[in-house]
Amino acid sequence: MSSTTARPRVTAPPSAGRRGCPFGLSLIDLGAHGYRADEYFFEGEATRYRPAAGTEFGVDGRWVAEPAGTRPYRTRMLVYRPVDPDRFNGTVVLHWNNVTAGYELFSGDTPELLDGGYAFAGVTTQRVGVHGLPNAPQGLHAWDPERYGSLSIASDDDSYDIFTQAARAVGPDRDRTNDPLGGLDVGRVVAMGSSQSAGRLGAYVNAVHPLAGAIDAFLLLIYFGSGSPLEVGDEVVNIVDPTVPFDARAALRGRNLIRDDLDVPVMVVNSELEAIACLPVRQPDSDRFRYWESAGTCHVSQQAMDQRIPKYERDFGTPLPQPASINHISMIPLYDAALHHVHEWLTTGALPPRQPLIEFAGDPPAVVRDEHGIARGGIRLPQADVPIAHNSAIPVASDIFSVLYGSYVPFPADEVRRLYGDLTTYLDRFEEAARAARKAGVLLPRDVTALVDEARAAYPAAAE
Asked: For the whole prediction, is pTM greater than 0.70?
């Protein structure tokens, strides 16, 4: 069977293991939302890829790959799906789980996913997810050897075809012998990944999708503008080991475009940090490509950490240190809006709205900032448009984590009072900005109320 048609064998985990539950399971009561969670193992022969003979992977993204051999693998996916088939909207979000932290990061339980009736499949695609990092064994093997000891991914070279086979295991034409979707009528598969996973999806779009054709749309979140290599052997990304050199300036710089001869939609949603990285490879919107970037945001937010910390403490039994300074504008509502638009793109043909880009000037180019130090242009979430603090991608130190966290500096209380006078005035202006963002298509209606409530809680302390 060729790499373009190979389908994996899907099974249930053979043991509940020591923990009695899957790793990374949502903290949300999925049942209260009409959802259920099921974990599946899947296995097969994964095809590795390399640049085709006589070609090179250039800036234009029109990469030509060829098979470079196969290797066995066994891995897992965690699936959230509506219990009632009538609630299912026909779209499976196939998530490339992120392993930069040394263990898998994924959610699958945002308001759009649960309220919108999507199915979610979080896929363990990379070696670190199973085997962990050498200096920090937090992969599935270490977390529950009884449940996950049989899993194996030899190299990240295998990840691209593992992802393709996962797509075939949940797609419209899947084998239903052990059906991860429980018989749901799947119409389409949307691939989604963030950060390192977005880089791998960028390479997948450019090099593998033309061979596999298993994905209906791609959503790349906080993407630094560079596809990952197809061949890395035993090498894994390791930013948590201080003895392993990691050049943030070199790594976080855009080097290639997303190919412009696409046959499926691709959407990229970036914070201010990735907008800086992607500046050399910005590309125009088209009927198959959309690019959004958001002012005043960064790769990681306080709100994202607020969700991550309790899950980490539950899964590993130890506290996760809270960063001293971290951006306070969440990208999660923007991601949900983007997913909503991608679903509409596929089902109705309505393209996501075009958005303004962050302003750059100078040589070398730098972000143009307003009197508050907040980036000009770009998507204007209400916290950036009606600020009570300086939020940006400007790091407080040069280490990689500080770069990813950006910064948050509250305005002095007298400045907050000078700008807004009182809570009522501030909320009026904030809600107006939130409704403008909704009209622009970058917030969904449910998020307007949630953000206004967040602003109402934050103002009194800021103005004291």
From this structure: yes
